[in-house]
Design goal:
With about 250 residues, this protein is mostly helical. Helix content is about 45%, strand content about 0%.
Length: about 250
Amino acid sequence: MSRRILLHVALTLSTLAATACGGRDAAPGRPLADAQVIRPDAISDFTVLYAKNCSGCHGLDGKGGAAIGVGDPVYLAVADDAAIIHVISDGQKGTSMPAFAQHSGGMLTDYQIQVIASGIRARWAKPDALRGAIAPPYAASGPGDPKRGAAVYGAYCSSCHGADGRGGSKASCIVEPSYLALVSDQYLRTTVIAGRPELGAPDWRGNIPGKPMSPEDVSDVVAWLDSQRPPSQGEAYSSLRKEGGIR
């Protein structure tokens, strides 16, 4: 074998050895360290978790979309962390809100749900959101009176939603069976209290200037709305009366 060939072989072997000793990360086809995929249950960044799990319904900035805005400071002043964590974890049976916790069939760990709940409050809550007012409690203390609720609706809601709840010049129908099939009584209560500012719907203080709704008013108008549900429309309707949640 010629001296030139021997030199070429030696150089080739030396190059291969250097490549092998230089670290496996440099090997052709091997993903770089920063290209490694993070396990879904190891993600702990609020921005990522909220964007992937919440923004589709509640809006990228928490201001609402298909569902109530969880970034609304008034809503966050009414709903405490336990309520928020509960509905993220277990969802809302009979509505479009699924369970996200692994123990309820979802994909998120308890820690990830805590990150989402804490991040929502840290990012969007405001200490002076209620401006000294005392809001009706998030959860009802008992069933409302639908008969009285009809009068409450007429006083506080009909100017926007129409005399019979089927819509007016300022707001849409709220007694449509398809709508009532997708929302719980707690959702209705939360909406009456916190409003839907992104849709122009005021909170419990803004329907009649200087005359906020009382806790009884809120419970009664929700009872009236519940009474508008069709008597027999499948599981969604029968379960709605029994379920709570932040929605």
